[in-house]
Amino acid sequence: METIKLCFDYKSPFACLAKDPAFALPERFAIEARWIPCGLRIRGKGERSQFSEWKASYSYFDRRWANHRARSLAINGPLKMYDSKPLIGGLYAMREGFFRARTDQVREFFERGLEIDRPDEVAGTIDRLAEAGVAASGSGAAYRVYLDGEGREAFDRCLAEGEADHAFGGAALLLSRRALWGDDRMALLEGPET
């Protein structure tokens, strides 16, 4: 059984669109999925070229892709430049066994119902999952301890691994050093390498 690495960043609308098909990959193929945070490095307004500015605007403006994919996801533009450190919440959820539920929550970010870089809000979402019985072994308080200690170290290791794999953002899929980007390219896993 091969392992496929699924690089993700919660602030990427493309990673949000890819999450459901990516979670289904082990059901369709004889693979093990290994999710790793990959820091999407986006420059702020005024720090990027005009071409990059247009691309960023289009990426958030173009809701047609989400509608076409029948997920009714409202992709709203970011209110600010977000740090990737909130991915530590995803690592915590992996460790505690509720990663899918945590990743599903991030949809709220694109609907402007969650600020993913505020530790208190992340802790609150984890507590809501615990209250619902989804995150039986998790808590917001334990996440806060993990965030500032073991989680930061795990996150740094993941970023270094992503750089070694030449991952440039989420959603990236890496299988046998063969990189694919985005859920619309997952079908390429079924065909021969070109």
Provide an overview of this structure:
The two termini are 22 Å apart. This protein has helices spanning 13-28, 50-61, 64-68, 87-96, 99-105, 107-110, 119-131, 140-148, 150-164; strands at residues 2-8, 31-37, 172-175, 178-181. α4 packs antiparallel against α5 and α7 crosses α8 (140-148). The longest helix is centred in the first third of the chain and has 16 residues, at 13-28. Helix content is 47%, strand content 11%. With 194 residues, it is of the alpha+beta class. It is globular and about 40 Å long. The mean pLDDT is 76. It has a four-stranded mixed beta sheet, sandwiched between helices. The protein contains nine helices and four strands; from the N terminus they run βαβααααααααββ. The chain has a single domain (2-189), classed as Glutaredoxin (3-Layer(aba) Sandwich).
Task: Write down the overall geometry.
Answer: globular
Biggest β-sheet strands, sense, barrel: 4 strands, mixed
The whole-number mean of residue pLDDT values reads: 76
- Write out the CATH superfamily name: Glutaredoxin
Low-confidence stretches: none
Identify the CATH architecture.
Answer: 3-Layer(aba) Sandwich
- End-to-end gap: 22 Å
Helix content: 40-55%
Structural class assignment: alpha+beta
Rg, alpha carbons = 17 Å
Number of helices: 9
Whole-number total of structural domains: 1
Q: Within the largest sheet, what's the order of strands?
A: 2-1-3-4
Please report which band the strand proportion falls in: under 5%, 5-15%, 15-25%, 25-35%, 35-45% or over 45%: 5-15%
Would you tell me which CATH topology applies? Glutaredoxin
CATH class: Alpha Beta
The overall strand count is: 4
**What order do the helices and strands follow?**
EHEHHHHHHHHEE
